[in-house]
Specification:
The protein has about 270 residues and is mainly alpha-helical. About 80% of the residues lie in helices and about 0% in strands. The chain contains 7 helices and no strands.
């Protein structure tokens, strides 16, 4: 009997642990908030529907009042004053109805705006709580992982579970494989194919350097070389008949000067 009671206690405690699980509690709270938002949206829809119905009724009464006003004018034009008086009385009743409907409609509009504002605030709060729920669930998962690692580390013995001989053998095998790969690369560099690849790399470097120099010339970062076929420099003559001094070349830019300094350092090295 005592064992049965203990079993029921253990089952009850296990069930309560599941019920009080933080992740399940957070999910339930989120579902409750979303359900409340849906219910308030339905209330807002009902309020808007009533407002729209009042708006239609008010528009119909205003149209009826305007029509009665035209009928009263027509009766007066035809000389039937008694009929015009009856129409005016009916129009007054219609105007009274319009006044009541207008007040009810204004109140309905205020109620709709208040409900819409409340729903928007509740939606914003729900979004914030949802983000907070995700953060709390992440913290709960992290705490579970940390507790699991701590429990594992408490009973972990490196001396018993870590095989030093296997580690040394694996390390030696990896070192031998690296040495073999280095030897194969060395033989590859001395083979005919390796030389051809080196020659291709050198040719590609030269082509890239030529393209870089052309680009620098376009950008004004490198002085343009004067070919042998260039026309001779024109000498300007002053008013006194003496030859003027040739134009002084423009000073090199700061970038060109710095580039030449780098090239000189590379040549000296």
């Amino acid at each position: 009997m005592k064992r049965l009671i203990n079993w029921f206690k253990a089952l009850f405690n296990r069930t309560m642990d599941k019920v009080e699980d933080p992740e399940m509690m957070l999910d339930q709270a989120r579902r409750d908030m979303e359900s409340a938002v849906i219910q308030n949206k339905e209330r807002a829809i009902q309020a808007i529907t009533q407002r729209n119905e009042l708006e239609k009724m008010l528009a119909n009464q205003k149209a009826k009042s305007a029509n009665l006003d035209k009928q009263a004018e027509l009766a007066l034009k035809q000389g039937n004053r008694e009929l015009a008086l009856q129409i005016v009385r009916e129009k007054q009743n219609s105007d009274a109805t319009i006044q009541q409907l207008q007040q009810t409609y204004d109140q309905a509009c205020q109620a709709v705006e208040a409900v819409k504002t409340a729903v928007e605030r509740q939606q914003a709060e729900t979004r914030a709580k949802t983000a907070e729920t995700l953060a709390l669930k992440a913290q709960w998962k992290q705490a579970q992982i940390q507790n699991s690692i701590a429990k594992t580390m408490d009973g972990l013995s490196f001396d018993a579970q870590f095989n030093t001989g296997s580690y040394a053998a694996a390390s030696e095998r990896i070192s031998r494989a690296q040495s073999e790969a280095s030897a194969r690369n060395e033989m590859q560099s001395q083979s005919l194919q390796g030389r051809l690849m080196a020659m291709q790399d050198s040719s590609m470097d030269a082509a890239a350097e030529d393209e870089l120099q052309q680009m620098e010339a376009r950008l004004g970062m490198r002085p343009t070389t004067v070919s042998a076929d260039a026309p001779p420099e024109t000498v300007q003559v002053s008013e006194g008949g003496q030859a003027a001094a040739p134009a002084t070349p423009a000073p090199a830019s700061a970038a060109e000067t710095e580039l030449q300094q780098i090239e000189n350092r590379l040549k000296n090295n």
